[in-house]
Amino acid sequence: MSYRRRKLPKLKPGEITVDKHDSNEKTIFGFWVYLMTDLLMFAALFATYAVLRSNTFGGPAQRDIFNGLLVLAETIILLTSSFTTGLGMLALARQDKNKVVMWFGTTFILGLSFLVLEISEFWHLIVEGNSFQRSAFLSSFFTLVGTHGLHIVFGLVWMIILLIRVNSRGLTPGNIRKLTSLSLFWHFLDIVWIFIFTIVYLLGAAR
Amino acid sequence: MKNFKALISYVVGFILSLLLTIAAYLFAVKHLLVGSGLIFTIVTMAIIQLYVQLIFFLHLGQGLGAKSKLWVFLFTVLAIAVVVGGSLWIMSNLNYNMTPQDVNNYLMEQNGGF
Question: How far apart are CA B65 and CA B62, in angstroms?
Fold first, then answer.
């Protein structure tokens, strides 16, 4: 759905027409299918982690590197950012451009704080000699949590570019569609994090 | 009015998720339960939170095209069950089926198992 005016092709009688709304629905559905395939990739990484979890090769296990408050802070920050995305979508439904920029801007700042906490967690592990090269457990840990972090990075880059576009061009149909996809992406990342929080951190600490 | 309903949906989802997160954290860190009871409780809370966020944040099963989204999701859940469950099942049996006992003992001593 381009915001520019364009000539529509002449249709023969009986040919199917695609209106704006229908095309939007298709894009969102396609994006949903992409998210589900991404979920499958995370499932494979979770399976790898579950299989290699106890292969610590004399190095630390999850309970030895567990920093409870840091992980709880990361979780609550990401959950709040998922909530502010929702508030941004409500502002989008009201066509309130300033509120959209405000809520997605809040989401961006929360996402960035999450990323900073995660990088500091990784940095401490690497400095202490517990990098991904230390053991099979740490390799699978860094791969699973790092892949999620990489998704957060892409989400943040996408968000900042989109915010600049919304600011300069307003809530065009194209921007509305992209904001909707982005909000799905962000809720999805929070759901993946629930399982990282539970399976990697909490169950690791409980054992 | 429709907007107000949606706002309530996000607020309820947020509060429920927050409560579930903190409860699961306290169960694990304060060791309120032990062994399989603890594992069962924490995993159940994660699954409840998945459900809460799917309904209140992602609005799964509502709006246009909801049915096809739901089917794709359910198929993905099936595929995940096969990938994760199958991997764990095969890998946990591989030790007992494939490795001679003395090698297994050696590995257990060296790095705590396969």
Answer: 8
